[in-house]
Amino acid sequence: MEKVQLLLRQHVGAPCAPCVAVGDKVKKGTLIATPTGLGANIFSSVYGEVSEILEDRIVIKADAEQPDEFVPIDVPEDASKLDMIKAAGIVGMGGAGFPTGIKLNIDLSATEQGEFREDINPELPKDFKLEHSYILINDSECEPGLAHNIKQTIEQTDKVIRGVKYCMEITKADKAIFAIKKKNREAVLKLLDALKDEENISVHLLPDIYPMGEERAVVRECLGVNLDTTQLPSAARSVVINLETVAKIAEAIEEKKPCISKNVTVRGNIKGGSEAHVFMDVPVGISVGELIEMAGGLDKDDSVGEIIMGGAFTGRAAELDEPTTKTTGAILTTYRMPDLTDKKVGLLVCACGGNEARMRTIAEKMHGEVVSVCRCKQAIENKPGAPLKCLRPGNCPGQVKNNMQFKKDGCEYIIIGNCSDCSNTVMASAPQMGLKVFHQTDHVMRAIGHAQYRQLTVSKQVDQDINVED
């Protein structure tokens, strides 16, 4: 590692402002940039020297020797736990990047339940009332093929649970629930054993379908209510927080450790094999290429397609020299995509996958001619230009109308980015209309040895009982 590049915007909000100068010597944990509005502190993730300060990043030339020691966050002796979290620069490490100190600055014991829309909650009684307030831990490892959250659950169970308790204390939540897919049996059993004497912390099992980790999906699965696209989890008297973020909270409070590292899954068409290569506590700001080399390196033939930073559904194409951030969860390398030269293509844009720009990029790389664009009818645009939100994530309606439009517009192929359930509804009618389907994740799924998203074979319902003795 010769250098790290620390972007000044690694979170929701405005870019941070540098507080170091070129030539400054820094250590792991040296504060190098501070928020100018909504944001989070940024620290050096290595020992080294500031070599450049650019408009969007600070570049640090790394020393050859990298001691384990770090500079603790600078807080008063009587600092509150919430102040420690803010000082540590922790953000939502599942990809959202919202500053955690702001998210946890809520008194859930005094939070009123919101109004739940009857049209998306038809089974709720009119007098439905949530009896408790909750911390909901998103341990779903939502994107297919990722494994770092589950590895941390297994290897750092006690730390994670301590982090959850701090979250409960700060927000005055009555209960906490781990939302985790039932397929991750080792992690589930480890949690159940560690929580056997905890009356107020439980485990909720999720089906292995995408997008079970979407924030409102976690609320629905754990608490039984559908929030609309404008509501935050606080409407259900809850806060949803990522598993890795919870561990960072424990580190900040117990060790005064700043947020300087990230757990990352590297996977796909690489020499090291298609299984998940999980790297824990990687310095924030190292390059995509370095992570791929750590996993064995790229194949040198022409079979490599895209390099994706993030998950197969919500990630984006990246270059080898791009830096990782606090929210980078995965680097995926893919097989080449099929050639659709001279083929007319329709795009079905879903809130759960890539936006229209990402879908058009994929079509362009396949050399297809985009002649039609439709949206899933549950994809809601709350404000002009805002990212789409799904009305009921992971529980979707039919797509016959959209498929009929694609057929009318002369499409031969359609590219979709839909969730498991929505892809299933596309496949119920598209082939009968002579439409050939390419899911935006197909080239990723082939590379990681995962089933392509077509017809749903996993039930959306999960029996909550699990036999520990099995």
Automatic annotation (TrEMBL):
Domain of life: Bacteria
InterPro entries: Ion_transpt_RnfC/RsxC, Nuo51_FMN-bd, Nuo51_FMN-bd_sf, RnfC_N
Database matches in Pfam families: Complex1_51K, RnfC_N
Coiled-coil ranges from the UniProt annotation: none
Domain NADH-ubiquinone oxidoreductase 51kDa subunit FMN-binding, chain residue ranges per copy: 85-250
Sorted UniProt keywords: 4Fe-4S, Electron transport, Iron, Iron-sulfur, Metal-binding, Repeat, Transport
Record-annotated RnfC Barrel sandwich hybrid domain positions: 3-58
PANTHER family per the UniProt record, alphabetical: ION-TRANSLOCATING OXIDOREDUCTASE COMPLEX SUBUNIT C
Protein name as it appears in the record: Proline reductase-associated electron transfer protein PrdC
Organism: Dorea ammoniilytica
